[in-house]
């Protein structure tokens, strides 16, 4: 059975990664007043952050229309027997539910939807694993079983400069944002029950980065092989410096650099940094 892999733009896969496995991508959009832009298609990350600094009204985000998914699944039915569609956490966006609805609308192809329960680089881990396994001839059931096992292994932590972005976007309570602002803390955030929540409150960004590194060290000291990703919100120089420092310290970890694109960047804000990792299986 031939299997196609679909994801959405919030995985922030590089073009060459998508092309390598013929991964299909459905974009989410950001809205500036009355102008809408599909991320990864009509607006780049750097263009987005430039527009945010100039905008009078804070941008909003929107999920893809169900019809977009249905059109893609119908197109794929011409060449594939099955689809595995992997998406941003259902606790952060309605994108996953849109894929579920579209899957029920199409005929001639079996669509399996997978809620990554996260976003960004960690979401891409699932997508790339599914694509690799599909290329190697694994069944959809085998792929989905492996992805569920990965959920026990994927870790991700985020440090933001300004909690107001998360609060404005409804991803964090007003009380949590207010306390963070008053104390001038750099909270470490993570995803719990499919939503972004504070994990620990740290006084400075330097200490917050060090604490996230401690969490990484607890996992990778076993000597097993890991993939880890430093993720930045339009602060590539800071992200790359952190990645290089980590790579020197943990030689058993394969590090790479990614970014928070427009949709996720709307909620985290410019200057945010993240670190995610997963044990290779």
UniProtKB/TrEMBL annotation:
It holds the Pfam family DegV. Gene3D superfamilies: 3.30.1180.10, 3.40.50.10170. It comes from the Bacteria. InterPro entries: DegV, DegV_C, DegV_domain_contain. The keyword tRNA processing does not apply. SUPFAM superfamilies: DAK1/DegV-like (SSF82549). One of its GO terms (molecular function) is lipid binding. Keywords: Lipid-binding. This is DegV family protein. It comes from Ureibacillus yapensis. The lineage of its organism: Bacteria, Bacillati, Bacillota, Bacilli, Bacillales.
């Amino acid at each position: 059975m031939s299997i196609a892999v679909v994801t959405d733009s919030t995985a922030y896969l590089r073009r060459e990664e998508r092309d390598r496995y013929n991964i299909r991508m459905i974009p989410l959009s950001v809205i500036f007043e009355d102008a809408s832009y599909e991320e990864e298609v009509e607006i780049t990350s750097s263009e987005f952050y430039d527009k945010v600094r100039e905008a009078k009204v804070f941008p909003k985000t929107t999920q893809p229309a169900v019809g977009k998914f249905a059109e893609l699944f119908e197109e794929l039915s011409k060449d594939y027997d099955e689809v595995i569609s992997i998406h941003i956490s259902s606790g952060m966006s309605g994108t996953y539910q849109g894929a579920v609805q579209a899957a029920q609308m199409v005929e001639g192809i079996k669509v399996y939807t997978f809620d990554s329960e996260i976003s960004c680089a960690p979401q891409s881990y699932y997508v790339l694993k599914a694509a690799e396994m599909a290329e190697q001839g694994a069944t959809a059931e085998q792929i989905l079983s492996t992805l569920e096992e990965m959920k026990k292994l994927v870790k991700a932590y985020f440090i933001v400069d300004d909690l107001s972005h998360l609060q404005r976007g409804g991803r964090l309570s007003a009380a949590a944002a207010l306390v963070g602002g008053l104390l001038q803390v750099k909270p470490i955030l993570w995803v719990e029950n499919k939503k972004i929540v504070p994990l620990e409150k740290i006084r400075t960004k330097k200490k917050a980065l060090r604490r996230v590194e401690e969490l990484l060290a607890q996992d990778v000291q076993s000597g097993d092989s890991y993939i880890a990703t430093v993720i930045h919100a339009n602060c590539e120089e800071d992200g790359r410096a952190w990645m290089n420092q980590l790579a020197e310290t943990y030689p058993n970890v394969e590090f790479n650099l990614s970014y928070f694109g427009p949709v996720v960047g709307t909620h985290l804000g410019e200057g945010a940094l993240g670190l995610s990792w997963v044990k290779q299986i």
